[in-house]
Design a protein that fits this description.
There is one protein chain. This protein is α+β, with helices and mostly antiparallel strands. It contains 2 helices and 4 strands; from the N terminus they run βαβββα. The chain has a domain at 14-38. A 4-stranded mixed sheet has the order 1-4-3-2, covered by helices on one side.
Length: 93
C-alpha cells in the first residue's frame, strides 16, 4: 500500500485471510440470500453459522444472532481508551 507521501506501508501482522461476520436476526433468510441468488460457495456451516467464500482470501460469515453472545464494551470505557466503537446493524439483517 502506498500512502500520500509515496512511502510504502505493510501490516504489522501479515494477513492471509479476511472474514466479516454478520450477526443476523433473520438468519435463515440471510443465508438463503447469499447461497441461492448470489450462489456464493459455502466453505463452512453449522446449525447457526455459515461461512461463504467471496474472493481470493475474503470470506463472509452469517451468524444467527439469537444463538450468539456478543459482549460489547461500554461506550465510556471505549472512549476513555481512545477508541469509539462503531457498528451498523440493519433492522432487517
Amino acid at each position: 500500500m502506498t500512502v500520500g507521501n509515496g512511502a510504502t506501508t505493510r501490516p504489522v501482522v501479515p494477513l492471509d485471510r479476511a472474514n466479516t461476520i454478520l450477526y443476523c436476526r433473520r438468519w435463515e433468510a440471510t443465508v438463503a440470500f447469499y447461497r441461492d441468488p448470489l450462489r456464493l460457495p459455502v466453505t463452512h456451516h453449522t446449525d447457526w453459522f455459515v461461512e461463504f467464500h467471496l474472493a481470493a482470501a475474503s470470506y463472509l460469515s452469517i451468524a444467527d444472532a439469537s444463538r450468539a453472545t456478543i459482549v460489547q464494551p461500554s461506550r465510556e470505557r471505549a472512549c476513555s481508551a481512545g477508541a469509539l466503537p462503531t457498528c451498523h446493524r440493519p433492522d432487517d439483517a
